[in-house]
Amino acid sequence: MGIDRSLRILITTIILTALPAVIWAQAQSGIAGVARDTTGAVLPGVTVEAASPALIEKVRTVVTDERGQYKIVDLRPGTYAVMFTLAGFHTVRREGVQLTSGFTASINADMSVGTLEETVLVSSQSPVVDVQNARQQRVITVEVVDTLPSGRNWQAMAAIIPGMQVGAGTGGSNQDVGGLKGEGNVLAIHGGHATGESRQRTDGMLGSNGGTIDRNPYRVNTGMVQEINYELGVNTAENDSGGVITNIITKEGGNRFSGSVFGTFANEDFQSDNLSAKVRERGLTTVNSLRQLWDLNPGFGGPIKRDKMWFYGSFRYWGSNVQFAGLYHAKDPQSIIYQPDLSRPAINDTWTTSYDVRLTWQVTPRNKLSSYWGEQPRRSLAAGGGTTSVTIARTPEGLAYQDIPMDYTRKLVWTSPVTNRILLLAGFSFDRTWYKPSPSPGVTENLIAITDVGRGLGWGAAASYSVQNWPPKYLKGSVSYVTGSHAFKVGYEWHHSRDTNSSRTQNDVTYTFLNDRPTTITMFTSPTTTDTVRDNMGIFAQDQWTVARLTVNAGVRWDYYANRFPAKQLPPVRFVGARDFPEVTMPRWMDVNPRLAVSYDLFGTGKTAVKSSISGYRVHNALPINPDPLSTSVNNANRSWNDANGDFVPQCDLVNLDANGECGPISNRNFGRTVIATVYDPELAEGYGKSLHSWETTATIQHEVLPEVSAGFGYFRRTYDNFTITDNLAVSSADYDSFCVTAPADARLPGGGGHRICGLYDLKPSKFGQFSGLVTFADQYGERREVYDGIDAIINARLPKGAFVQGGVNFGRTKTDNCLVVDSPQALLNCEVTSPFFQPAISVAGMYPLVWDLQLSGTYQHKPGPEITASYTARNAEIVSSLGRNLSSGINGTATVPLITPGTLYEDALNQFDFRITRIFRIDQTRIRASFDLYNAFNSSAVLGGITAYGANWLRPTSILDGRLLRISAQLDF
């Protein structure tokens, strides 16, 4: 508790005495360069002004230093005019400088002797190569969002970045077609982990759902978006993570009233059936189909007082009704065996309403306040999208009805350029999300959740109902000192939340079937409630020096992470009595991570940059289990079930943990006890360098091929270390007996199946159900590695008349080595996996203007197919001859056997073409855009995920690319 108190005092002291501030735009935009005379000599003391309608203060001013260099930071995205003035020299003015977020435009001036009254207007193209910053990023402006066919959300737009994984870890099931997949996914690229490393910010302020810091439940109101900045690597010390950092830059209004109204609609008549013969042969008889899709999104902003206070607000109402492929309501929800009612298909009915407004107030010439307020209730009638994974699909009765009556965000930021060298900012945000699930309509309290691993289907009740309440608070601050050749920044950020999660399993049990035959009962200590207090704090220093053509970006970050679990009392439930759990604070981790990057202006022209970096990051949410005493106790356990009389009712005493009647022994003898079943190695629980860690190394080159056309090539390497494992101290490798299983004969399996699979192990009966877990470092048992190597080739072209092309290709390969024995020697089976390298990920997007104010735009995505696996459930009768005894789980026990070596078999690659034709109508300053979008234009039926449980339904797709979709939309800009 002393450390917590000290941290509170430290935070308060920093706030009150150091005047630090929050970075309003995480990746700041800027303009930098050098002023020289006609002989090439540098000119100190030149006044440099950057003016733009994007600035409420109109203009930002700095002075060149003794090297003739200058930097203007913290600029809003927009179009700028840059003016250089010095007594005795002609004034030089550069117009039309296009500035996107996170980009430093290199603008130099050659000044000739003359009078100030004479202005030299320099006409040239806007820079496209950032020669000062080494960060890897992609920026998508509102013009691109309005131009390209997309689902109008930041995850769908991210899919056009080569190598980007949307909803990483879920196969390709989140591949979007016209907005049908919705939002809420996380992103990963270059071998990164989506879970724990992805971040979403709004105007630089972190948004999250509390404990899961990589997810922001608040959906983006697209009508508020000015730009979307995706930081893909070489993240500075301002970021705690090395993953994809998405920063949504919002509109703030201006000195004239303007706005837009967007609307789109589609229904079942707008979508084609892409049920191809190929997927029919694999058992898929129906496909996901659209019922309705809509999006109404007006926005409006302008001055409350010119040059003093601006506003921008937007309302958005959007959603969809999608019919799930091959999923139907049950004919009789009360029946223990599922029979589909083909007249009642499963429908995912989702809608969201969003109310958002931003205010910007120039309080004084050197003090500005910005605030953001958003409110967003929403609802889903089939949470989970019809599948819990690519393995098991669940019927509507088997899913929770998800109601989110409260989801809001509040942000307040103050900025102050104290001088033309010192910049202060300060801000705070508060979010609140309340999830309130309930049984789907028609589900009664007597129903039990059933999962059939043979049919690849779940039905009955939902597996669990979790009421969640997340109220995170976020504070971040910095003070910057900027000269022409030097930019130094120090700051901190603090993220605090107290999250509650109340979870219950209906009837306290779930059943597992194998082809309609009961095999397993899972028992729960339901209901349970967790209460977690989390603190994340980081203090960073970031320095940038420019010497001649070389810019060095060096930084270091100190991070503190702590979890506290208040004491709790749980009342008696069906299988266990009352339980008391003490307060626990664990872990308390601290990390120090360096960041070093260099950028070299190869020819001194600002058109070719060679960059390299090495950076260390901690990985959030990396503990293998939750150290909450409730979570480290055993709250669920399995027992085999032999339904001898076929009545689907367990004829046994479930409270008796030993084998009795139709039930085998409990899989963990600590079930329901207040003893802590899992403890932490003291070396892991507290101290420096204990969290999962990654190193990122990059080497890239970017070149301006033609005016406003750049091409780049890069190499990326990412490694992970500091893995943890859970060791069952109650057993050792000697407590396992080996056995083999004969794979089923099947032409779809490698070699046609029928081969012997060995390296399988079963715990000795005398040790069955015994567990005493220790979480510790994996390197105590051997070497565990994860390494990614990849290359990118990228092109970005801004062409005449507003045309553009952007895209490229990514090749990457991940190697994992987990060849260490902790408990079972079966860990050595398929322990080393290497994904294929030559699986290109290609993404291209572009727009070309036609005659009569017509525009043609489109995107193309080529992505590797998901991996194919097969998990075979082998019965005791198939194993006993090899094992020499019954399985320790009993005569009715089973064992899961992998039939395919990981990393060897993949679905066909996905190819998706989306097109848009737009007709623009202009009336004075009003513009109307009428668009026809065609998504998945060639009606591909690429498989995105399939049933991986080997059986009659193995390889049956659970998700394919949605069929060709026509969407009509209109947008009024005024």
What key phrases describe this protein's structure?
Immunoglobulin-like; globular; Maltoporin, Chain A; 2 domains; 974 residues; disordered N terminus; six-stranded mixed β-sheet; mainly beta; 59 strands; 26-stranded mixed β-sheet
Quick take:
The chain has 974 residues and is mainly beta.
Describe this structure in words.
It is a single chain. Helix content is 5%, strand content 51%. With 974 residues, it is mainly β. The strands form 11 sheets. The protein has a 26-stranded mixed beta sheet that branches. A 6-stranded mixed beta sheet has the order 23-27-26-31-32-39, with no helix packed on it. A 5-stranded mixed beta sheet has the order 3-2-5-6-9, with no helix packed on it. A hairpin with a 2-residue loop joins strand 55 and strand 56 (926-935). The chain is globular and about 100 Å long.
CATH architecture of the largest domain: Beta Barrel
Poorly predicted regions? 1-26, 383-391
Mean pLDDT: 87
Major beta sheet summary:
26 strands, mixed
Helix content: under 10%
Class from helix and strand fractions: mainly beta
Number of strand segments: 59
β-strand percent reads: over 45%
CA gyration radius, whole angstroms: 30 Å
Number of domains: 2
CATH H level of the largest domain: which superfamily?
TonB-dependent receptor, beta-barrel domain
Span from first to last CA? 57 Å
CATH topology-level fold name of the largest domain: Maltoporin, Chain A
Q: Count of DSSP helices? A: 8
